[in-house]
Amino acid sequence: MRGMLSFYILWLLSNRSMNGQELCKELARRRGSKPSAGTIYPALRSLRENGLVNMERQGRATIYSISEKGRDELERACKYFCSVFGEILQDHIKSTHK
Amino acid sequence: MRGMLSFYILWLLSNRSMNGQELCKELARRRGSKPSAGTIYPALRSLRENGLVNMERQGRATIYSISEKGRDELERACKYFCSVFGEILQDHIKSTHK
DNA sequence: ATAAATATATTGGGCATACGATATTAAACC
DNA sequence: GGTTTAATATCGTATGCCCAATATATTTAT
Known about the structure:
about 15% strand, three-stranded antiparallel sheet
């Protein structure tokens, strides 16, 4: 069950490339709480070290983008995630439709 | 993003009460990998200490069941989980239907 | 009664997630 | 040019997840 943050970051980056602060805002919007710098940057670093994201400095910002390897990994992770958690979502949708 | 295992355990126990080994088997079936003792029992202990599950000794087994407080907490957690991860599942379902 | 099997539980170590504090760099402003 | 601001990054610390190893208690088998 570990690696959910990295998984989520990878998914966000698959929609569009972003810098760290934009990523924080996206996470804040979706999760309700904004991750701090000490959460996000080590995660990005680890993703980069594993070759799943690329980074490119642009002025004072660093644009992170998903790599080919990252897309492959994301697809595998999505498949796994959905097989494990899909039922919980189905249940919840059903129960809220009554 | 932490607490996914406890969340999952709570959800499993909301379907039916189980002992630790049955829980391990359910997790193995759904996740693909069987959690070891050092994973499952500390999680159950913490859930119990927070009043989310009850435990009852039956011979050599300990039956764990969800409490009222646990059901309330699970409902909140499900709502949150689905709002955060729902889109990933929707995306995946769409992309696999083509 | 003894041995084997089942189930629970803890310990120690490693990695992931999380925060707040601090430092560094680059752009923007005056 | 010097100050402020924005963005990146690291550090220390705490907690959750994860395994392998170990220990304990209870049931089952011989």
